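anyone seen this seq b4? input:
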Amino acid sequence: MPKRLKILALAPETPQIFGAGVRTYHFAKALVAQAEVKLCVLGKEKPPGMPEDLAVACDWIRHLPADYRYATGKNNGKASAALRVIRTLLTPWRNGGEDMVLAWENQCLERTADLSGGWKSLPRRVYAEVLRREVQFKMNLSGLLPKNTSFLAKPYNALLAEMLGQYNGGAPDVIWFEHSILFPFAKEMRRHFPEARLVCNAHNVEYCLQRRVAQIAKASSVRKWYEMQAEASRRIEQEAFKQCDLVFCCSEEDARLVRQLSPRASVAVIPNGVDTNYFRPATETGNQRGPDGRSRPRLIFTGAMGYEPNCDAVGYFVREILPLVRQREPGCRFCIAGSGAQTRFGHLAQTDPLIDIASDVADMRPYFEMSDVVVVPLRAGGGTRTKILEAMAMKRAVVSTSLGAEGIALTPNVHLCLADAPADFAKRTIDLLRDEGGRQKMEEAARHLVCQHYDWNRLMDEASGIFQQRAGAGQAPPEVAYLKTPLCDIK
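predicted toks r here
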């Protein structure tokens, strides 16, 4: 009887049954069915917490407590702000450059209005420019880590001894990491377990995602921030895809980008999927349509509002598309649903009574049921959009941009509508709202498509076979060139 593989898995976020951590959740479930999995989550725990079935199935799970203090780069009070400025400028090497990166992010993303011009903003503009040059210099000199990676260096170091102690002189067969941004941690972990194979579950090709966000940025400071993040991510991913024994991608487009960076990379395409038993229309479960008897919003956008492409999509839709829809459908409601929706877009509901906010909901299904059309006006992003697959599984008609539907093998005007210009997007949305028969026909076709090709159980059966064949046993790992400064030395 062959031995069960031992897998040490690293993740930047809590696995979830839907939303941002859904891909991690289903891959983890597939792994625990065939291996002993120890899972270490480095990022903040998100409600509703770890799914119980995964928590029971894993051999070991470690998650930092909810009150763990992550670095934020924010200043509290003028005195502390002044001290942080002085310390950052005089000692930019502190914490591996993390203080400097977070300070520049704070200037570029949170204080954009303060950098717009005028003599009063001159000190802040000078400070932001000095930070930018220091970040650029350090990135060119020593390969500065992107923010999403450096942000997790502290929790990684806090959990390192505990992770190593789990093996008591033994070693994992595979070091698995979710998202390419965790490669530096996985590589340093293999310093301790040199025979382990490396597998990356790439939810996006991060450098391409950052470049797309830079292209839609209005402020030059924001654009420069994302361009720097893209270059830092590209360096990590180029090495990661070369060193890994196997890279799982979400789409053929992502696989193409991976091979551009590393032509000899071992790549397998497993798209994002949907749990078609969980996401199913109420008519199949015997429930009433919608969670209450009140008038329902007719249009809905779902997604995590901590993700910049989602925020851009909502702003773009409200500014440029929704007014065109309401010219012909004056009473049309719009619901913004997802984690952080109230914080980011609560002000819209205060000024527009036809905009509803559903923030941090535990179950998205009732909100799909309340809608007639799901809108996905994304202008940046990567991978495969689970929001579209979930909507299609719920038999909801979708209007999306071409980029929003990227990576899903579908037929336009059969499974959903595609539109990139605001006027065309509005027209297709109105047509679906008014043509109930055509909308229902599209909903049936969409549900059939996801059940046949995008059900997580089918996808994970395929992924398990690929994993066993390419990384589960046999070949020795490629030679690894370690970082000059181990991450465990970054305090």
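The two ends are 44 Å apart (CA to CA). Residues 285-294, 474-491 have pLDDT under 50 and may be disordered. kinda curious what u guys think
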